[in-house]
């Protein structure tokens, strides 16, 4: 029994019962694949259900406001995925007249769709013979064939894609692709793979050479950047506050409290000396108190954000018109969302 047949046989007996596995609707498969980028299946499933309930078709998604989509996406992170999803839905409806792309070359033109997603949708929905390569596939192929080429290099990406394409069962492309991904997720796991019960264990190079934990290989990780955020959480006498829409960066178009970014951690005295702080409070008396006793460290893939939330109470000011009761209606980052859940005041809920 060859490599593909063994994987498919294992898959048909062991696959998880996931909601997007019961359909070949390209909108639903595309949606699930975008959600599952950088997201665990158990977390992503909840969001998949929410999106299907609120936007059952690509047209419904296209007609939604970006704010609605970002609010529904809240907590998933990597918000550019949601913005690209919305952009592509509008593109499909307006430029393709509602006709979902069917081929790899058409799918990859969608904003936010790369080689993996285009291959997944094309093969699962339309049985196009194009192999998927994701983290699970890299791991299975690297271990089984004993490949030491780093997966995050141009050479590695090309080598693994070519190998995956050679191994593909072209008559059952969608099933083959789902099988190898599921095998990597459940059997050939990053840590503690189940080698003893693996149907491929008699021919796995990494297992025979006792190098399972060494593969796949990745080149050195990028340097993590440290950033220091000071959020100014305003409470006015009439229960209003100030939030602003972020215009750029990872949290573009999400809302947040006025932000003062500094080069290092600062104390209250240093905060009050900041020009941005004084611009916020040109008149009136204020009181300042640090909400979190210890710095909140929010870790992202490329940066760690060290955050302090400063509670500032002040008089009624015309610039601050967002009532505290409405704050949670706005789409915000996980960092702000977690703060709001902790910050219990009688203005909320």
From TrEMBL:
Pfam family, one: NUDIX_4
A GO biological process held by the record: mismatch repair
Keyword Oxidoreductase set for record: no
Cofactor note (record): Binds 1 [4Fe-4S] cluster.
Domain HhH-GPD per the UniProt entry, residue ranges: 35-186
Keyword tags: 4Fe-4S, DNA damage, DNA repair, Glycosidase, Hydrolase, Iron, Iron-sulfur, Metal-binding
Enzyme Commission designation: 3.2.2.31
SMART domains: ENDO3c
Cofactor requirements of the protein: [4Fe-4S] cluster
Catalytic activity entry: Hydrolyzes free adenine bases from 7,8-dihydro-8-oxoguanine:adenine mismatched double-stranded DNA, leaving an apurinic site
GO MF annotations, alphabetized: 4 iron, 4 sulfur cluster binding; 8-oxo-7,8-dihydroguanine DNA N-glycosylase activity; adenine/guanine mispair binding; metal ion binding; oxidized purine DNA binding; purine-specific mismatch base pair DNA N-glycosylase activity
Stated family: Belongs to the Nth/MutY family.
PANTHER family: ADENINE DNA GLYCOSYLASE
Function: Adenine glycosylase active on G-A mispairs. MutY also corrects error-prone DNA synthesis past GO lesions which are due to the oxidatively damaged form of guanine: 7,8-dihydro-8-oxoguanine (8-oxo-dGTP).
Protein name: Adenine DNA glycosylase
Organism: Lutibacter profundi
């Amino acid at each position: 029994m060859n490599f593909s047949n063994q994987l498919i046989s294992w898959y048909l007996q062991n696959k998880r019962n996931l909601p997007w596995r019961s359909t070949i609707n390209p909108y639903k498969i595309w949606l699930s694949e975008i959600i599952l980028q950088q997201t665990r299946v158990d977390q992503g499933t909840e969001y998949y259900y929410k999106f299907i309930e609120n936007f059952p078709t690509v047209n419904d998604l296209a007609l939604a406001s970006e704010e609605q989509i970002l609010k529904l996406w809240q907590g998933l992170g990597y918000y550019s995925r949601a913005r690209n999803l919305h952009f592509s839905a509008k593109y499909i409806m307006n430029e393709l007249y509602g006709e979902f792309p069917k081929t790899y070359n058409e799918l990859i033109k969608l904003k936010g769709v790369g080689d993996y997603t285009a291959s997944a949708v094309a093969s699962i929905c339309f049985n196009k013979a194009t192999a998927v390569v994701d983290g699970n596939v890299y791991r299975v192929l690297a271990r089984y064939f004993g490949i030491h080429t780093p997966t995050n290099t141009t050479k590695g990406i090309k080598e693994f894609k070519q190998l995956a394409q050679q191994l593909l069962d072209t008559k059952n492309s969608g099933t083959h692709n789902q099988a190898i991904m599921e095998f990597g997720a459940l059997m050939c796991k990053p840590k503690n793979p189940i080698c003893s019960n693996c149907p491929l264990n008699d021919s796995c190079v990494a297992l025979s050479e006792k190098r399972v934990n060494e593969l796949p290989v990745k080149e050195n990780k990028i340097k993590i950047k440290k950033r220091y955020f000071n959020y100014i959480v305003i409470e006015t006498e009439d229960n209003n506050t100030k939030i602003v829409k972020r215009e750029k960066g990872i949290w573009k178009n999400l809302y947040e409290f006025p932000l003062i970014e500094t080069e290092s951690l600062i104390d209250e005295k240093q905060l009050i000396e900041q020009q941005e702080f004084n611009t916020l409070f040109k008149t009136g008396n204020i009181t300042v108190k640090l909400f979190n006793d210890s710095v909140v460290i929010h870790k992202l893939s490329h940066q760690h954000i060290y955050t302090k939330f400063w509670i500032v109470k002040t008089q009624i000011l015309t610039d601050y018109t967002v009532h505290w009761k409405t704050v949670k209606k706005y789409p915000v980052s996980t960092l702000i969302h977690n703060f709001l859940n902790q910050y219990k005041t009688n203005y909320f809920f």
